[in-house]
Each structure stands twice: as structure tokens, then as C-alpha cells.
User: What shape does this take?
Amino acid sequence: MRSETISKKYCNDLTSYSRYITRVVKIGNVPLGGINPIRVQSMTTTDTMDTLATVEQSIRIIEAGGEYVRITAPSINEAKNLENIKNELRKRGYDTPLIADIHFTPNAAEAAARIVEKVRINPGNYADKKKFNIIEYSDSEYESELERIRQKFSPLIKICKEYGTAMRIGTNHGSLSDRIMSRFGDTPLGMVESALEFVRICEELNYHEIVLSMKASNPKVMVEAYRLLINKMEEEEMNYPLHLGVTEAGDGEDGRIKSAVGIGTLLEDGIGDTVRVSLTEEPEFEIPVARDLVSRYSYRTGHKIIPPITDNPLDPFDFKRRESIEIDKTGGHNVPVVIINADDNIRNNHSALADLGYRYSESLDKWNIGDSAADFLYLGCNDIKYELPGTLRKIFDYEFWIDYPGKNDSYPLFNAEEYISEEDNRGKQNFLSLSIDDLSDEMINKISDDKNCVIVLGTDNEHSMAEMRRVFMKLINHNINAPVVVRLKYENIPEEKLMLYSATDLGGLLLDGLGDGIWIESNDTSLRKINNISFGILQATRTRISRTEYISCPSCGRTLFDLQITTSMIRRRTDHLKGVKIAIMGCIVNGPGEMADADYGYVGSGPGKITLYKGRDVVKKSLNSEIAVDELINLIKESGDWTEPS
Ligand code: SF4
Assistant: This one.
């Protein structure tokens, strides 16, 4: 039996940053893995048969900093046309490695592997057509299925060996084969096994130029699957490089936050050799986002030391929320709270409450709470000039609060020293600002005895997520179940980076079930933006649902309609449907499989034709695209999920 430490292993170290070193795979002139930099890449969205358009878009990706360019090859014709694309790029002086993206068509893969530097196959559909059948396999039947895959897959491996072509075996959560679904279910373990079945065949044929990925549109599933993959690779003595990505992340801020939560969480633990951020936008826009995500780690080694972990109480492969007590709607089973710092504008001007998710009703002359409304306003040592809505509670520094007349309707924030010395002056809910260095034995005892303490955990460590995770482990190991709000301060960074960094740092904790609230501070960003980012992070980690969730594919050469325009059209009409998941997928070949757990699907099924899904079921087939958005709304109404926008 494996020891506890080995069984939980998925990175080098949970407290000291270092890259998880994988084997080097040769992809043209840009090697991947080992100590090579974390590569960034994107994928074209043009028709692969349109050589010029594909070449020009590839150049835009390369000029933006893309180190590999992936191009879809749905059939043998597109696979063959990769030669023209490659020749034209080389003629124009671009030698960036090209990757052919293959689904369902081994003959296209075999043709492409003779032309480009790498092929990507999806183990869920390389040798299988998905019929959503659940079949009970005996061991011998399962083995003969594997033999069938071996027969179909071996020719491609032989070609890759002959031509020096690399291969990504890229599992997608939404497109697992019926065989894997029958045996392992729709689980991270199923995703891992789906890839390893193919890897084992490669190894039997002594082929090792392999890259692996475990993508899902739900960052929780995605992170679990990558961690489990590393754990299983260690067991089987494999160390293939990893391509990180969250599929169908969507567009704009939501797409960026969702990607940062998934990809960033893994990068924090040193995992990942290449990154692709999938946005429903022009592909060259993905590159700066990917760069911002990976560049944080160039200088991460040498961070302030975090005490090592002797006993890790977390299960990295099965997320459970840390148990905490409830104190006045914070902690326990309540959704994580959001705390926002007051600025001068909000202190003086009640209309600024709109920035914190409140809506003013003129007829009632009062502020109503919206779905993304902050829970606490931190005021430091200055009161506010008007009455706040009852759902927005005030926090003052202890030194101000102690003499404040409205003590009973507000909460004190103690620093560690005050908390120890002012034991007799506490309120009904006491916020205690702590960092790892404050957690002495005396402090642990004091918190254990206090049933009204909400810890506000902060850090100045550059490796902040790991340090705070370390504190959570200490709290769990000492049976301290006070709720914890995670407070992070970012200075002198632009809005885009604030969004990506905070989504990484807070997302990484929330995915591990850690945190009863979040508090983001930045002097360089508006309160409206900070509030949006806070709720976006909670939505992406699925810890507090306040918005409609869009699962939209990034589009590729198979796309049958303008995804960006359609996504924004659907978003405009449905973005008030809190908690409803809508998938917008460019093609019927991969779309239905990859839209995972969406409630509704809008899928291109032919030129100008759309098919609508409810869950996994087709409900309206081949509609004209002019009426398809209206029909989607009708479907949502008929299904009882519609509410009128307020
Ligand atoms: S679902 Fe979208 S990205 Fe995926 S293959 Fe179809 S069109 Fe391309």
C-alpha cells in the first residue's frame, strides 16, 4: 500500500515553489517540457481550406507571442492543405511549429503527421463514435476494446516516429468515450484513464514524444484531473509534459477569470509546460492573457520561506469545503462573503452603491440588493455619510469601533495585538486580521475559545496562495473552525493583471474548499471592477452563483456561425438568468460532446442552421439561424428557467 505522502503527490512541494519537471518533447524548433520556459499557444479560427486567411491569422498569433499555432484538420482535405499553409508561412519567414487538431478522423491525423510538427488527438473520439451508450464490459471485453484501439492508433504512432512528429493526447471532460464513461463515469479518473490508455500503447511502441492535457469547462474538474494525472503518471513512472487549458471558457472578463482560476491554480504548484487560454475572441487576444498568467512564475523561486507541511489534511483529488461555524451569515453553509474597501466616492455619494451591486428603486426610494451585491463595506476609521442598505454591513478598525455609537450595527476589525489584549471589548462578530506569523500557540488557543471570531487572513508572501493554504492546513489540524475571509492586496498593477492574479490566488484556495469570504484590495482599480472580479471568481469556482454561465467554444475552422456576435447576442438577452448554464458551440461534431454540464445548448449544425439542446437532448433541430436565438429563449421559457429581467 502506498504511503499517505505518495498517494497525495501531484507536485514537487506545496510550500516551496518549483517547476514540476517533465521530459523534454521536441516540437519543431521549440522544445517543450523540462526546464524550457512555459510556452504559450493559440488556435486559428479560419477555414483551414482558406490558406491565405489561415496564414494571416497564424501570423497574428505568432506576432502576439504565440510559440505554437494549432489548426483544425476535420478531414483529409484540410490535413493535406496544412502543407500549403506551412509552406506559405515558411516562405514569409515564420518557422513557428504547427499543430494539427484532430477529432474522429484517423486518416486526417495520419496525413497531418507527415506535414506538421505535432498532432493533437482526442482519445475520446479517435477510435470511437459517441452514442451515449452505457455498456457493461467484462474484463475480457474491455481488453478486446483496447486491442481495437491499438489497431486503429498504432499506424499514427508509427508515422509520428518516422517523421519526428510530436503528439498531444488531449482529453476533454465533455467528450469521453462511451467505454470510459461506462467504466469510470464522467469523472477526473475517467479523464486520466482515457489518456493513459493511449499513452500505454505509445509506450509499447517505444514512442515518447507525448504531451498530455485534461481540459474541462469547469475549473474544479480540470484541476482535479491534472493533479490526478500527475499522481498516476508517478505511479507508472511517466513524466510527460502538460498542456494546460480550461475549455469553452467564454469571452471577456468571465472567460479570463475562469481560465485564470483553472490554469493559475496549477501553475501555482509548478504544474504545466504550455498554456492555451480558450476565449471566444480573436485568437491573438489569447496570447497576452496566457503570457500574464505564466510570467508570474519566472521569478517565483526564492520567495519568503513557508514552513513545510508535515500533515496535509486536504484531499487534492476530491474537493470538500472546509468545515466552519456560522457567525451571522458568514461561514458554515453560507456562500462566501464579499468585502469591499470604501473609497471617498462611496463615503460621500450613495449613488456609488450601484458599483457594489445594489439597485436603486425610485418608486420605493430605497436600494435593493442585486445578485452580485457586496456583503460588507470596510470603512477603516471613517464613518459613511448616509444610511447603508441593511444587507451591506459596516466594518471599522477596532480603535474607531470601540467608541462608535452604532457599535451594535457594525463590526470591529482587530489586529493580532488588539485581539489578545482587548478580550473584554469584543462584539457579536469579531474580524481578526492575521498572517501566518501571528498564529502562535497563544493565538490558536484564543481563537479556539472564541465563537464569534472571523479570521481575515492576509499575506505579503509572493507565493501567497501556498502560504495561505499552509495556514488553512494548520487551522484544520488544530480543529479551529472559525470562518476565514481571504484578504489580498495588489498594488501598482493594471486591471487586467489584477483580474488574473486575484483569480489565480483566490481561485486556488476556493477550489480546495478553503475560504468563507474574499476581500480584494487595489488602489489602482475601481470598486465596481473589484466587486465584479470578486463575484466572477466565486462564480468560476462555483462557490457562489450570481450570474448566467456561458460555455462558449473558442471557434475553429469547423465553426458554422459567427461565435462572437452570437455569444454577445445571447448574452444580452439572458445575462439575468442567475445560475443557468448556456453553451454556444460552433459545430455539431464536437459541440454537444464538449458542452459538458450545460443546461441549454445552441449548436451549429450546418451552414445557417442551429440545433438546440436541453441538457444532452436535442429538442429543436436545424432551425434557421435568424430565429434560433428567439427559439432558445422560448425553450428556456417552456422549461421553466426564464425570469423577466428587472
Ligand atoms: S465546438 Fe467549436 S472549437 Fe470545438 S471543434 Fe466545434 S467549432 Fe471548433
